[in-house]
């Protein structure tokens, strides 16, 4: 197949692709979710399992997504179809793209709500609202925010608009420009914060919590959470990376690029943990506090430390930037597909899809106030959306992509796209994508099911 150009544009070079994909990967998953699920699951052993999934499952699947996107040069839905047809398989593989686009919408709806909390905290920090507050008071600030649908709605709306404005600008004027501005700022801010916690927190205790190893603390539940999170954090299983891969230059090596992105994402999650837990321990706060970890314990810590107001403010700005670049990638598959399908401009598409996710987000934010009585499988709407996407949709999407790239595609196609200099690398990828990734995902699903039923 001759290399076509993507109608939406393409990244200027390999580094822009790395930065954009890293922007997608690094988000609330690293800074909000990873520390709190590591905290809930006891740290150490959970972190190790998570790292194994990143390397053995996430990296090969990310390579598969980039490969399919770059081969298809279209939105994930259309790329899956074309690339399937090229290898004499059914165009029905496009359904995997559909499932992914749906997952993107569902993730966006609660992602935007959490990003809204972050924006509210940027304002509160700037205001000095947390100066010298105790954990009870900080907990009250957070629960008051959750109980106030109007304020939540305002910040959620602001976030939806921010994301749609970038998407509207398209690949080069929107995504690429935003990436170039935000990613370097993000790295600098995170390093500043790490330095702060190394000098002001209980650094050793924080490290020990993250890296001690006690396998007896591990449950099947925790393994499923670690698996789901490895997909969530690398933006896999729903088409974001496939869409970004479709804008990738032909001559860039997929293996090296993907390893760089996964390493950056992992480093940032670990650095976030190393920045957060020492502060938590220095103030005798609870590492297992759940989704409130970042929003309750950290402001208390910042409020009590010298320079905490400035660093606290910077911290939430950092999280907002990270959430922004990720949320853009959640919507890109859907936006690209609508542009291709209906020949529309990005403007009307972004307005339409923005409206849809805005409405879905209202359902998610109602979980904490006027919709708190609504229960789906014993969870509120927000928790249900989080659970079903990270622990079901994404691993399932990843499983399908792995089977697609490993078994359905002609080897000629995968060899050509991966263009590995060393034949051993191709073999390693083949084994991972055909056996390790699918078996791991399927086994964990089945074992969890058995445990829930048994
Ligand atoms: N990877 C992002 C994060 O860690 C979330 C995300 C998931 C983004 C799926 C795009 C697609 O926050
Ligand atoms: Na991430």
TrEMBL record:
It comes from the Bacteria. It is a multi-pass membrane protein. One of its GO terms (cellular component) is membrane. The keyword Glycoprotein does not apply. CDD domains: SLC6sbd_Tyt1-Like. InterPro entries: Na/ntran_symport (IPR000175), SNS_sf (IPR037272), YocR/YhdH-like (IPR047218). Its main location: membrane. GO terms for molecular function: symporter activity. Signal peptide: none annotated. It is found in: Membrane. The chain crosses the membrane at residues 12-32, 44-68, 95-124, 152-171, 183-203, 223-245, 257-281, 310-331, 351-372, 384-407, 427-450. Keywords: Membrane, Symport, Transmembrane, Transmembrane helix, Transport. Belongs to the sodium:neurotransmitter symporter (SNF) (TC 2.A.22) family. This is Transporter.
């Amino acid at each position: 197949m001759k290399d076509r150009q993507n109608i939406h544009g393409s990244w200027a070079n390999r580094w822009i692709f790395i930065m954009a994909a890293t922007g997608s990967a690094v988000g609330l998953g690293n800074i909000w979710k990873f520390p709190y699920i590591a905290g809930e699951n006891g740290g150490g052993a959970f972190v190790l399992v998570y790292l194994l999934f990143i390397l053995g499952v996430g990296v090969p699947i990310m390579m598969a997504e980039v490969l399919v996107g770059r081969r298809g040069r279209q939105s994930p839905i259309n790329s899956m179809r074309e690339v399937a047809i090229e290898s004499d398989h059914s165009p029905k593989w496009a359904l995997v793209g559909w499932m992914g686009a749906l997952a993107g919408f569902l993730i966006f709806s609660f992602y935007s709500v959490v990003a809204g909390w972050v924006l509210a905290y940027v304002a509160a920090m700037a205001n000095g609202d947390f100066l010298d507050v105790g954990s009870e008071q900080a907990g009250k600030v957070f629960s008051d925010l959750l109980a106030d649908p109007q304020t939540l709605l305002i910040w959620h709306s602001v976030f939806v608009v921010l994301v749609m404005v970038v998407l509207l600008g398209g690949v080069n004027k929107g995504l690429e420009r935003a990436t170039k501005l935000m990613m370097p700022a993000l790295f600098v801010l995170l390093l500043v914060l790490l330095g702060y916690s190394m000098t002001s927190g209980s650094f050793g205790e924080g490290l020990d919590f993250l890296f001690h190893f006690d396998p007896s603390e591990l449950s099947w539940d925790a393994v499923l959470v670690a698996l789901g999170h490895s997909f969530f954090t690398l933006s896999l299983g729903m088409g974001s990376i496939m869409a970004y891969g479709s804008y990738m230059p032909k001559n860039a090596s997929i293996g090296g690029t993907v390893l760089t992105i996964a390493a950056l994402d992992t480093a940032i999650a670990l650095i976030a943990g190393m920045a957060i837990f020492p502060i938590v321990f220095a103030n005798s706060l609870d590492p297992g506090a759940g989704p409130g970890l970042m929003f309750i314990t950290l402001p208390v810590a910042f409020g009590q430390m010298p320079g905490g107001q400035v660093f606290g403010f910077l911290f939430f700005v950092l999280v907002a930037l990270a959430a922004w670049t990720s949320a853009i990638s959640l919507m890109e598959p859907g936006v690209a597909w609508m542009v291709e399908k209906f020949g529309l401009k990005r403007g009307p598409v972004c307005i339409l899809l923005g409206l849809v996710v805005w409405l879905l987000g209202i359902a998610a934010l109602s979980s904490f106030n006027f919709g708190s009585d609504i229960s789906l499988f014993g969870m509120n709407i927000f928790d249900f959306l989080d659970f079903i996407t990270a622990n079901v949709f994404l691993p399932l999407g990843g499983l399908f992509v792995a089977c697609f790239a490993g078994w359905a595609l002609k080897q000629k196609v995968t060899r050509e796209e991966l263009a590995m200099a060393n034949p051993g690398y191709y073999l390693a990828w083949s084994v991972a994508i055909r056996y390790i990734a699918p078996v791991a995902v399927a086994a964990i699903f089945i074992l969890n099911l058995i445990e829930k039923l048994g």
